[in-house]
Amino acid sequence: MDWSETTWIVITCGRGCAGALQGELRALGFDPQEVSPTTVGVEGHLQDAMRLNLWLRTANRVLFEVAGFEIDSADDLYAAARELPWEMWLRGDIPFHVHGVARHDSIRDPRFALLRCKDAIADRFVEQTGARPNSTSTPDGAACIALYWKERSIQFFLDTTGVPLSHRGYRWKPWTAPLRETLAAAILLELGWPKTPAEAFIGPMCGSGTLAIEAAWIAQRRAPGLEREDYAFLHLNNVDTAAWRALKDEARQQFMAAPRTWIAASDIAPPAIACARDNAARADVENLIRFHTCDFRETPLPKPPMLILMNPEYGERLGVEERLVTLYESIGTWFKAQNQDTRAAVFTGNLPLGRKIGLRPVRRLPMWNGDLECRLLEYNIYEGTRDPRLLRKHASAPPPEV
Ligand SMILES: C[S@@+](CC[C@H](N)C(=O)[O-])C[C@H]1O[C@@H](n2cnc3c(N)ncnc32)[C@H](O)[C@@H]1O
Questions:
Q1: Residue 350 C-alpha to ligand 1 middle, in angstroms?
Q2: Which of 17, 163, 335, 362 has the fewest CB atoms below 10 angstroms from its CB?
């Protein structure tokens, strides 16, 4: 199989992350096209797909298109899939896994479409090689095929990723309500952190530490896929593994083990800090992050410039609303007490609570945490922001209970 042919590559992402993903693609030299809320397309060949898997922070999967048809039934799907030269793309000795989306009047259960696709691939293999390959229900260690069937149109892809890129592998112990790693990276990229090499990152209310760890990886210019071993493209037929090693060597040359960046993470709950430390150790950035167990207002701060980014509870999965009103008000008061040259941002799933911060955001960006529509609220702190009445009101208030 010659993998040097250019095809259409579709990159999937969480809702609200497509803007950050396009920025990443441009920085890698691609021309993003056909953008939807959860996908961005580029042209490229298999080596490009490898590079995207290695470098993209905000993507879930990199899908390499192999064919597209118009069909009317699951029988048509079987016939279309059986025409394709799977024996050239896949290896008979490695199991294959089929996943995807199927929405058509003729089928009630999308799993039926996946099953018909699986049968077609196996039957084609038997016809062409005399041997039936195994299929598997999980993407681990498998070659992966994705199908996207909507109304009459069906596209077949080789999913070059397998286990989604959001599973970075460092978070064995999530604390309550963790952000997905790819969403955390998209938030940081949307905020353009670091705006200057000197800008510090402060992550109060860090929970399992996802934002601080992703910030550390960005500061290190670490390709997020550098240490990951299993990618579905490695299980395709005749893959240029030397090219893959060269891409990783190039990424290692760009990696800076110890960038001179101030990164801090704090949380009021000792088990959250223990968990964030463990995760940071697995991500190999424990020494880059200053951890503190304290109320967010006690987090030791460096001199500006800095970005303070927090993801407080927002009542959907944690916390009680009334207590949270006081918490959000006190976040605003604390922001107002900061010096100029500080940027502050809050990621929340509760807009009425966000308004309690009492500052006018310079930006309100919709982003989704799973199915929940959230907002990234960004504030610039300047001298006029300080309100002496509010500072007095919250100066003596005890920290909200957790
Ligand atoms: C939604 S979780 C953060 C999740 C985090 N973004 C992650 O990816 O794991 C909110 C965190 O705020 C912490 N918290 C609540 N009130 C606090 C306070 N007053 N000071 C510091 N941390 C607080 C909680 O312990 C919890 O870990």
A1: 15
A2: 362
pLDDT grade, residue 376 (50/70/90)? Answer: very high
* CA atoms within 13 Å, Cβ hemisphere of 391: 8
Give the CB-side neighbour count of residue 224, counting CA atoms within 13 A.
Answer: 26
- pLDDT, residue 384, reads 55
> Taking CB atoms and a 6 Å cutoff, what residues make up the pocket around ligand 1?
175-179, 204-205, 207-208, 210-211, 267-269, 272, 295-296, 311-313, 399-400, 402
**Residue 99 and residue 154 in one domain:** yes
Residues 6+ apart with CB under 8 A from 106: 72, 73, 74
Give the chain's end-to-end CA distance (angstroms, integer). Answer: 58
Which tokens is 306 given?
A: 């800095």
Q: What is the pLDDT of residue 399?
A: 47
pLDDT one-digit tens code per residue, 283-320: 999 999 999 999 999 999 999 999 999 999 987 545 56
Number of domain units in the chain = 2
Amino acid at position 243, single letter = A
Looking at residues 43-50, what average pLDDT do you find? Answer: 98
What would the pLDDT profile of 20-41 be if each residue is shown by its tens digit? 999 999 999 999 999 999 999 9
Within 10 angstroms of residue 112's Cβ, the number of other Cβ atoms is 14
Whether the Cβ atoms of residue 211 and residue 311 lie closer than 8 Å to each other: yes
Q: Does 313 share its domain with 190?
A: yes
In one-letter notation, the amino acid at residue 387 is: D
Q: Are 381 and 321 in contact (CB under 8 A)?
A: no
Between CA 18 and CA 294 the distance in angstroms is 35
Which atom of ligand 1 is nearest to 174's Cα? 9
The CATH number of residue 58's host domain is 3.30.2130.30
Short-list 130, 7, 15, CA closest to 66: 7
Pocket residue to mutate for ligand 1, from 181, 268, 317, 367, most atoms within 8 A of Cβ: 268
Alpha carbon of 217 to those of 259, 284, 396: distances in Å? 10, 9, 38
Q: Which domain holds residue 127?
A: 7-159
Phi-psi domain of 293 (left: phi exceeds 0; alpha: psi -120 through 50; beta: other): beta
CA of 48 to the centre of ligand 1 (A): 38
Mutate to test the pocket of ligand 1, among 313, 317, 367, 369 (most ligand atoms within 8 A of CB): 313
